[in-house]
Amino acid sequence: MSPPRRSPWWSSPPTPRRSRGAGPTREARTPSSPSPSSPTTSGAQSCRCWSEIGGRYNLPPVTTEQTIPSFIGAPVQRREDPALITGTARYVDDITLAGTLHLALVRSPFAHAEIAGIDVEDAREMPGVWAIITPEDVADVSMPPTPNPKRSVPRRFPLVQGRALMVGDPVVAVVAESPVAARDAADMVFVDYEPLAVVGDVETAIEAPPIHPDFESNVAYDRSKGDRQAFEALEGEIRLSGVVEHPRVVPAPMETRAIMAEWRSDGLTVHLSSQAPQLMAEQLADDFDLPQTAVRVVTPFV
Known about the structure:
Helices cover 16% and strands 19% of the residues. It is of the alpha+beta class. It has a domain at 8-44 and 84-248: Aldehyde oxidase/xanthine dehydrogenase, a/b hammerhead (Aldehyde Oxidoreductase, domain 3, Alpha-Beta Complex). The protein has a four-stranded antiparallel β-sheet with strand order 1-8-4-6. Strands 2-3-7-5 form a four-stranded antiparallel β-sheet.
């Protein structure tokens, strides 16, 4: 199938150039099969933990007549180990499909900055480029916040909308025929940033003005246990109190975030690294206005 004609729907007016590219880019891939009429795209979708699933569906406890043996003190052979230790485990990057296109992201080098303008004219002329996607092209595509009243989760967009809120926030997406072509074109994108004040620690962030206008504060989650008044009323010579700090969790997967999408006659098949493929299938079906039965999400080794 011949490649689709390039169209000016992704164009942006020239603006002052203050940042060229955005340093390292992260890659996603999608075959060149025809897509739905809407020019939306989804990439680098992150998983959601099971606590959010419970908040969405209010899952009841499951009861069963089956007797589950105890594994305490018993040797358990992990089924995935042989593939991992012999190098035969299959990851998203091991999947090859004919006609694959590659996506590179231009990311913000600032922790907090207004996006004053984007110039993609030079990048558009680079060889092998099929499309350049700017924030305005995907302003109506987002992952809605989890309907959990105990958590403040903002709506998430594929590309920044007006402000970069962290170093590495994706600003522009470039689609090209090869990873090298995509990265080279991403380096030719010029973004005009206006750096803003940065808050670098949790305690200061609690008292700082809300970073998301939809929320009253920067506190994402507030939970209480026990009876504080009863504790204060206790009598005793020794009473202990303290602040417990939880360190940042840093996962170390064998493969970083990756996604490959393939359009087939029966729908959309997506291979991606995720711990919640069922939620990704639901989100993709919503993004592309497809029935959930037409979306298949496959998670290989992560």
